[in-house]
Amino acid sequence: MVELLISFLCLATLIVVLVEVQAEGGFRRRWPLALWTISLLLLALHVVVRVFQNLDWWSPERVFMAVLAAGNFGVAVILLLRRLLTRPAPHPPTSG
To answer: Fewer CB under 10 Å: which end of the chain, C or N?
Structure first.
């Protein structure tokens, strides 16, 4: 259950940050995005491992919630990877 709450918070925060950064023109450095992507990917893998470890003891609802949390982390990773791999268009030089 905690994984689902964390995943929703991470996904909502990520969407807000990406929208604000897009409005300002982009990130200056890529390494914070890479660290964020790696940490969210590790969290998703951690949730999947917990599901497989506790599959016999957890109820179907709890398994579903954990899989949903892993899916949210996965969507966040995909959004960050898309942002990392796409380069913004270069600004035209200003004359003056």
So the answer is: C
